[in-house]
Write a structure and sequence with these properties.
Elements: H1 16-54, H2 57-60, E1 85-88, E2 92-96, E3 103-113, H3 116-124, H4 126-138, H5 142-145, H6 148-163, E4 175-185
Length: 186
């Protein structure tokens, strides 16, 4: 005869499946709420602590009626930037050295100067300024003026030539830039 083992009969009030199905999700929900509350509290504390550490006394006192009495805001002094001083030269027309053909350069130049004294000197010695620049321009070839490197070299040469002192004056001019306003090679 085969006997089968039967499980003990379940009592009506001791249903472990029904009660644990309700309690387990509630416990997990409670744990989740506690973790979320700790995260929010920690974030608020960290941000509040950081902001109070980085502010200077003037910034901390903003919006408070009882702040430090001796802290006053002073506007930083603005740096005065001098207005640019430009001197426009009459255009130059020169023949460029070329074995193959005759090429012509039409060049308009404006000088940027560092001070008013340099502007007055250049106006006073304009024939010498133009002569110095013409000597540089007349030695150029068409290849010299058609590349960006050649134009940059030309700017340096003109700056150096115009910055040199004039005969009776011991110091030179303050030339901070040479600007091409017209540039035509034909």
């Amino acid at each position: 005869m085969a006997t089968t083992l039967k499980s003990p009969p379940k009592l009506a009030g001791s249903s472990s499946g029904g009660l644990s199905r309700i309690i387990r999700p509630l416990i997990w929900l409670l744990i989740l709420l506690i973790v979320a509350a700790l995260c929010i509290t920690g974030t608020w504390f960290y941000l509040h602590w950081q902001s109070s550490r980085e502010l200077n006394p003037l910034q901390q006192a903003v919006g408070q009626s009882s702040g430090p009495a001796n802290v006053q805001y002073t506007k930083p002094a603005q740096v005065q930037i001098p207005a640019p001083i430009f001197t426009k030269l009459d255009p130059f027309t020169v023949m460029l050295e070329s074995k193959d053909s005759e090429r012509m350069l039409f060049l308009g130049i404006t000088l940027r100067l560092g001070d008013q004294q340099s502007s007055e000197r250049i106006d006073k010695y304009m024939p010498e300024v133009r002569s110095r620049i013409l000597m540089i321009l007349s030695s150029l070839t068409p290849q010299d003026v058609q590349t960006p490197e050649g134009k940059a070299k030309l700017v340096k040469e003109i700056t150096a030539a115009v910055s040199k002192p004039f005969a009776p004056i011991p110091d030179g001019q303050n030339v901070s830039g040479v600007l091409f306003t017209d540039f035509v090679v034909q």
